[in-house]
Amino acid sequence: MTDNFPPDSADRPDGPVPSDGRRSFIKQATGFLGLALAPPLISQAERLTAISKKVEGVTEMRLKVNGTVRTISAEPRVTLLDALREKLDLTGSKKGCDHGQCGACTVLVDGRRINSCLTLAVMNQGKEITTVEGLAKGEELHPLQASFIEHDGFQCGYCTPGQLMSGVACLKEGHAKTDGDVREWMSGNLCRCGAYPNIVAAIRQVEKSGFKS
Amino acid sequence: METEPSFFETSPTPNVVGKPLNRVDGRDKVMGRAKYSAEYPIPGLTYGVLKTSDIAKGKIQSIDTSAAAKQPGVLAIYTHLNIPKLAVTPNDADGKKAIGAPMGFMPLTSDVIFYAGQPVAVVVADTFERATHAADLVRVTYTTEQPIAAYTDPKAKIFDPAKIQDGKTDGKTRRGDARAALASAPVQLTAVYTHAINHHNPMEPGATTAVWDAPDRLTVYESTQGVTRTQKALSTMLGLPQDQVRVITKYLGGGFGCKGSCWPHTVLTVLAAKGVGRPVKLSLTRKQQFTSMGHREDQTQTLTLGATKEGKLTTLIHEKTSTTSPWDNYAESNSKIINMLYDCPNFEASYQLARGNVMTSTYTRAPGEAPGSFALESLMDDLAYKLNIDPIQIRLLNHADKDPTNGNPWSSKSLKECYARGAELFGWSKRNPKAGATRNGRLLVGMGMATASYPVHNSQGMARVRLYADGHAVVQSGATDLGTGTYTVMTQVAADSLGLPPEKIRFELGDTKLPTAPNSGGSVAAGTVSSSVYMAAQDVWGRLTKLAIKDKKSPLFGAKSEEVAVENGRLQLKKNKAKGEGFMALMKRAGLDDIEGSGSGKYGAGYETGQAASPATSGNAEKPATHSMHSFGAHFCEVQVDPDLGTVRVTRWVSVHGAGRILNAKTARSQIIGGSIFGIGAALMEATHRDNQFARYVNADFADYHIPVNADIPDMTVEFIDERDPYINAMGVKGIGEISMVGVSAAVANAIFHATGKRVRDLPITPDKILATKAV
Amino acid sequence: MNNFSYLQATQPKEATGAVRDNQQAAFIAGGTTLLDLMKLNVETHDQLVDINMLAFKGIEQTADGLRIGALERMSDVGENPLVMQQYPVISQSLLLAASPQLRNMASIGGNLLQRTRCGYFRDTAFPCNKRQPGSGCPAQEGENRGLAILGGSKDCIATFPGDLAVALVALDAVLLLENAKGKQRRVPLVDFHLLPGSTPQRETVLEPGELIVSVTVPAAAHTRKSMYLKVRERSSYAYALASAAVGLDVQGGQIRSARVALGGVGTKPWRSREAEKVLTGAPATEATFRAAAAAALREAQPREHNRFKVELAQNTLVRALTELTA
Ligand SMILES: Cc1cc2nc3c(=O)[nH]c(=O)nc-3n(C[C@H](O)[C@H](O)[C@H](O)COP(=O)(O)OP(=O)(O)OC[C@H]3O[C@@H](n4cnc5c(N)ncnc54)[C@H](O)[C@@H]3O)c2cc1C
Ligand code: SF4
Ligand code: FES
Ligand code: FES
User: Fold this and answer.
1) Would the pLDDT of B291 be above 70?
2) What is residue B4's predicted lDDT score, i.e. its pLDDT?
3) Which H or E element spans position B533?
4) Nearest residue of C to residue B711 by CA position?
5) Hey, whose CA ends up nearest to atom 4 of ligand 4?
6) Is residue C156 part of a domain?
7) Domain for residue C174, yes or no?
8) Would A147 be classed as within a structural domain?
9) Which residue of C has its CA nearest to B117?
10) Which end of chain C is more exposed for a tag (fewer CB within 10 A), N or C?
C-alpha cells in the first residue's frame, strides 16, 4: 500500500555522516534539527502545484516525513496521525484521545508543534513533518531524548513521543527559560504516569546546556 | 525460609541493585521504537471497532446492519445474533470464576442491555476509518427501561453484601466492641466522605491485536498488566488448552488497575478475528475507555471515632455505601486500611451496595486504601485540631507497634522515621499550628500531612536465567512493565545475582511463552519477579557449583557444595576466597556454551511460611504468617488556596516511604511522584459525571475529565528510609506502585483545612466546594 | 467519521460558492473544532473546503484599530508584540486557551465559531435541542455544572466555551464577513452570536457560505489597560469555569470608560453593559467593582449544579478589575 520513495540524501536525518567526526554533539544536533525546524525547503509555488485541488475517495498522497517523501493511498478523512501510524508504520506518534485533548500525537509541521489527530493527511502534503522517529540522528540521540532518559522523564513511555516533540518545540520557541514556563508550555501534553517534574528537569537541562535548535 | 538463599547474604553490598540506573528500555521509548499492543504491522491486518449501546437499560429490538455492510471495505459485522460462540461465559458464577472475569456479564451474548456503552456490535473493515464509520451506520433500536444510575438514586435498593470485591473481603468486620467503646469515649467524631467516580485513564487506551495462527491457535498482542491472566481467561472462554493461546505485551502504556483483567473488548476482538479469518486490531476510543475497563466507584463513607481526651483512639466505625453493577458485588475494601493503620482496640466496618446500570467497578490504584485513607486521615486531622495536638503527634500517639488486626509483629516498619524525615524535609516545625492563619498576599497557605500504607499481598512467580560462557545472560519472566520499571529493575537484580554488568543482561518479559509471573497489580510485581530472578540465578550457581566440585581441573574440586559461595560471578570457598574460579573458565572447560536455571520467587506470607500461593495471581486470600507485612510512609503537602476564586494549587510536596529494599532509586522516585500526582488528581479534579436520568457519562473525555497537567505539579521531594526486611521475600522488596497514592488526597485536604480552616470531605475539591465552605 | 470530498480553495469565491451550494459542506481552517465534532458524529459534512490558502492573514494596526486576519493562528496573534502591548486582554485570552499545539493549529475565525462543551451536545446518544432540534434539553435537570447561568432558555443553557471572543466582545470588535456573491458586510461581534431562545441550533448570524475575513478592534485607552482572568479546574489546558475580560480607562482614580465581558457563564460571549454602567464615572474602588459584579450577574439563572458560578463570576470580575487597577 505504501511506496517508499528513494529519499534525497541531503534531507535525510540518517543520511551520510560528515567525515569530520569531531563535530560536537550539540553542533551535529543543531545541524539536523535546524533542518527539521527551518522554513520548508519546498517553495510555496511547488506546494501549490503539488496538491490536487479536489480529492475524493482513495487517492495517492505524498507526505514528507522526517525528510523522506512517502506516498500513501488514503481517503481524505484520514488524519495525519492515522496516516503516520497505520499507513506509514510510524507508530512513534501515539493516539491517546484522538480529539486534541492529550498531546500524545504531537508532531512538528513546518517546525511548529501540532496535534496530528486533528488535522487531515491531505492537508499536510508538501509540508515538512517531523515525528519522534526523526529526532535522533541514526543511533545518536537528540539531546532532549538523552535528557529524558537521564532524568527519567517517563514511565510507560506512551506520552513520551508527544512530550519530546512538544519539548523540542518548547525549547525552540523560547518557552523553556524557567521551570514555570516549561510547566505552562508543556501543559498540552498529559502524562498519566505523572512524570511531570522529571520532564521539566529534562527540558531545563537541555535549555541550560545552551542547546540551540 | 532458612533453607532458601537470600540476597541479603549473597550480595551484602550490591553493585547495581538500588542504584539510579537509567531505564534499559529508555532508548526504545524515546526513539518511538517501543511497540505497544496496537502497533504490530501484521500482514493482512484488519480493523475492529465497537458499536456501543446508547441506552443504559432495556433490550435490543432490532439491529439493521445493511447500510453498514454496504460500505466499501467492510468485512463483517458481528452482533449477538452472529458472533462466534464462547465455550464458557462469565454470565454465571461458575463461568465467571473459571475465567477469572472482572465482571459477570459478556456483551453480545444476549439482547439485554445492562449499561450505557455496552458493546452491541463489532465491525471489521480494511481500514480504521471505514470500520469506524460502518459502526456508526449500524442502526440499533431498543426497548428502553428506566435505568438506575447510582446508589444515590431514590429508586436504588441498598443491600448488605456478605462479601465484596469478588468475594475477597467480608461485608462486615468486627474487632472488639466498637459501639460500646464509642458510647464511653470522651471524644467522639463522625463525618461523611464522598468520592466521585474516577477513571484510570492510562494514556494508552485498551488495545488488542488478535491473530489466529491456526483454527485452534491464537496469538494476542494485548494491553494488559497480566499476560497469564489474559491467557487463562481467553483459553477458558474459547475452550482451548491454555498453551494454545499466546499473549504478548512488550510495552504497556500504563494500567493503574484497569488492565489487570481480561475485559469484554479483548474477547470480542478475538471472536471477530476468528469470524473473519484475518488478524483484527481493536483500540478503544478514549470515550469507550470510560465504559470498557472499569472505574473507581462512586461512594460515601461514614467514619466515626472515639478517643480519650489525650487523643488515643479507642474505637473506629466505618460504613461505606457504593454503586455496583447488575451482576457483581464489587466495592473497594476501604475498611482494611482503617482497621490496621493505628493502634485501636475496637473496630467495626460494614459495606452496603446498590445495583446500578453501570459496568463493574474494578481495582484502581490502591483500591480501598486510597479512598479509605482519605476518610481516616481526614478524621485524624480533625481529632488533632480538636484536641490541639500536632497532626504528626496524634499519629505517633496512635502508632501501631503491632498489627492491630491480629497482634502480629510487623515484618518491618519505619513509619516513625518517615514522619521525622518528612517533617524535616518539609520544614513542618515552621508551620503555624493554627488553621487559616497563614497568608501569601491574597492566598491562604496551608500545610497538611497524612500517613500512607499498603499491604504486601501474597504472590509467587517464576523466572529463567540462561547464562552464557562469554559472560552475558538472558533472563526471562512473563511479567509486564506498566512503566513501573520492571525491565530495568530486573536487569539490575540479574546483574548482581550473576555478577555481570547490566549491559550484559537482556531481560525479557510480557509473553506467556516465558515463565509465569503474577499480574503486575497489587504492587506485587517488583518483589515477586525480582525474587524469581534471584532464585533462578541461584539455581544456575547451584548447577555450576556441582560441576566445579566434580571437575578435577577446578580449584574447587572435591569441595562440598555448601562450602562454596558465589561472589560477583566467581565460585569460591567460603572459608578461603582465594580458592575458586570465574564461571566462564569453568563453563569453557566443560564445553558449555550456556547454562540454564529457573527459580520460583515467593512474595509475602508464602515466603515466610514456605507455602505456595497459587501462581500468577495476586491478592488472593491473605494467610498471615507470623509477621504482618506492609509498606508505610508519609506525605506532606503545601497548598495555596484562593478563597475568592476557589482554586487550590499544590506548591510543595514531600513523600518519605519505608518500602523494603529500593531496587532502583531513580525509577522508584518516579513511581512515588507518579502516584502522588495520581492522588492529587483524585483530590482536586478527577470526577466522571453520570447523568441520573440516563445513567450515562457526560464527560467521558480528556478535556472534561481533568487529570493533572504539568502546570498543576510543583517539584517534589521523595526519599526512602532504608529498610531490611528478611521476611517478605528473598530480595527484601516491598511494592511501591500503590502506596505512593495512599493518603495523598487526605494530605491535600488537610492542607486545605490548614489554609482555610474549613473541612471539605467531598472529592474532588473543586473551586465550587471551596466557595461553598465560605457560605457556612 | 463519514467520508467526504476535500476541496482546497485558492479564492474566496470558490470557497463560499462551494459551501453555499451544498448544505452539507463546511469550511475547514485549523480543523480543531470541526474534526473533533465530526469524529463524534455531532457534525457530518460530505465536503470540506480548505480555506487555508486564502489570504485572510495579517496582524496590523490600521486606522480603524487592530486588524487580524481570520486565518491567523491563535499562537501568532497571542504572541504578537503589538497585540501583547496594545491589546493585552486579547493576547492573554489566547495564551490562556487550549494548548500550545492547538494554538498553533487553530485560526481566529474558527475560534469564534467553536461550539459548546455541553456533554449532552457532544454525545449523540443523548437528546439535545441544539444538535437535534426538538429532542429536548436534558441539561436543565441534569449535569449542568459547566453550563450557562446567563442567556439561557428553557430549550438550551449551553455555555459558549471560548476565551478570545470574550476579550473581543469586550473591546467592541467588528467582524468583516464575505458571502458567495463576494459581498462584504461588517457585523459587531456582540451581535454575531445568538442567544439560544427556542432555536439553539442557530448560533451565529453567519449565512450559508459566508466567511469570516477578519476582525477589527478599535484602539482606545481601555484596550491598552486591559486584562483577561480565567478560572479553571486545573492550572492549564482547561476551559473556563468563569472568566472576565476587562478594559479600563482610569484617570485620577475615576473610571472614564470601562469594558467588561464574562466567559464560561453565558450562552454567548457575555458583554456586560450593566457592569460598565456601574463602573463608568465611578471611583476605581473595591466597592465599585463589587457593585459592578453584582450588576453583571443580576439576571443570572443558575441551575442545580452551577449555582456557584454566580459567586465565582462576580469574584472573578472583581479580581480582574482589582488587579488591573492595582
Ligand atoms: C482540547 C481542546 C481544548 C480547547 N480549549 C480551548 C480554550 O480553553 N479556550 C478556547 O477559546 N478555545 C479552546 N479550544 C477551541 C479551539 O480554540 C477551537 O477549536 C479553535 O479555535 C477552532 O479553530 P479552527 O481553525 O481549528 O477551526 P475549524 O475547526 O477549522 O473550524 C471551526 C468552525 O468554523 C468554521 N470556520 C472556520 N474558519 C472560518 C472562517 N474564516 N469563516 C467562516 N467559517 C469558518 C468551520 O467551518 C467550522 O464550522 C479548545 C479545543 C480543543 C480541541
Ligand atoms: S444545554 Fe443546549 S447543548 Fe446542552 S443539552 Fe441542552 S440543548 Fe443541548
Ligand atoms: S491523540 Fe491527539 S491530542 Fe490526544
Ligand atoms: S509516561 Fe506514561 S503517560 Fe507519560
Assistant:
1) yes
2) 78
3) helix B525-550
4) C235
5) A191
6) no
7) no
8) yes
9) C125
10) C
Most ligand 1 atoms within 8 A of CB, residue of C4, C8, C27, C46 to mutate:
C27
Tell me whether residue A11 is in a domain: no
Atom of ligand 2 nearest to the CA of C142: 5
Say whether C236 and A184 touch across the interface (CB within 8 A): yes
Is the pLDDT assigned to residue B157 strictly greater than 70?
yes
Is C236's Cβ below 8 Å from some Cβ in B?
A: yes
Ligand 1 and C98: CB distance under 6 A: yes
Q: Which of A41, A57, A73 is the last residue of a domain?
A: A57
> ipTM beyond 0.95?
yes
Ligand 1 near C203 CB (within 6 A): no
Backbone angles phi, psi at C86, to 5 degrees: -95, -25
Interface contact C100-A100, CB threshold 8 A: no
Same domain for A52 and A66?
A: no
| pLDDT for residue A10 is more than 60 | no
What residues in A contact C50, CB-CB < 8 Å? 123
pLDDT at B624: 57
A48 and A67 share one domain:
no
Report the candidate in B345, B305, B348, B340 with the shortest Cα–Cα distance to residue B413. Answer: B340
Residue B167: the pLDDT is 83
Mark whether A44 and A94 lie in a shared domain.
no
Q: Which domain holds residue C265?
A: 221-325
Region for residue B214 given its phi and psi (left: phi exceeds 0; alpha: psi -120 to 50; beta: otherwise)? beta
Whether A158 and B713 lie within 8 Å, measured CB to CB: no
Domain span at residue A165?
Answer: 143-208
CA distance C274 to C271: 9
Kindly state whether residue A7 falls inside one of the protein's structural domains.
no
Question: Chains A, B: CB contacts under 8 A, how many?
Answer: 179
Phi, psi of C281 (to 5 degrees): 85, -5
pLDDT value of position B774 = 80
% of chain B beyond a pLDDT of 90: 92
Q: What is the domain-level CATH number for residue C237?
A: 3.30.390.50
Tell me the three cell numbers of residue C274: 450593566
Q: Which three cell numbers stand for residue A172?
A: 525552540
Give pTM, 2 decimals. 0.95
- pLDDT band of A78, cuts 50, 70, 90: very high
**Contact (CB, 8 A) for B334 and B200:** no
Pick the residue from chain C with its C-alpha nearest to B646. C312
Residue B3 pLDDT: 59
- Closest atom of ligand 4 to A194 CA is 4
Quick one: which ligand is closest to C99's CA? 1
Q: Round to whole Å and give the CA distance between A92 and A40.
A: 23
Check which CATH number belongs to the domain holding A121 and give it.
Answer: 3.10.20.30
Angstrom distance (rounded) from CA B550 to CA C124 = 76
Residue ending a domain, choose from A30, A57, A84: A57
Ligand 3 closest atom vs CA A103? 3
* Residue with CA closest to ligand 2 atom 6: C137
Smallest CA-to-CA distance from B413 within B240, B628, B590 is with B628
> What domains sit in chain B, N to C, each tagged with a CATH number?
7-34+458-609 (3.30.365.10), 46-146+200-289 (3.30.365.10), 397-456+629-775 (3.30.365.10)
- The torsion of the CA quartet C194, C196, C201, C204, rounded to 10 degrees, works out to 10
Whether C228 is covered by a domain: the verdict is yes
Q: Of the residues C1, C34, C43, which should be mutated to test ligand 1's pocket, given the most ligand atoms within 8 Å of the CB?
A: C34
Whether A41 shows a pLDDT value over 60: the answer reads no
- Whether residues A89 and A127 fall in one domain: yes
Cβ partners under 8 Å of residue B733, min gap 6? B526, B527, B530, B531, B660, B661, B663
Q: C227 CB under 6 A from ligand 2?
A: no
Of these ranges, A46-50, B454-458, C248-252, the one predicted with the greatest mean pLDDT is C248-252
The torsion region of residue B94 among left (phi > 0), alpha (psi -120 to 50) and beta comes to alpha
Q: How many structural domains does chain A have?
A: 3
| Binding-face residues of A in 49-108 toward C, CB within 8 A | 51, 53-57, 75-77, 79, 98-100, 103, 106
pLDDT band for position A118 (cuts 50, 70, 90): very high
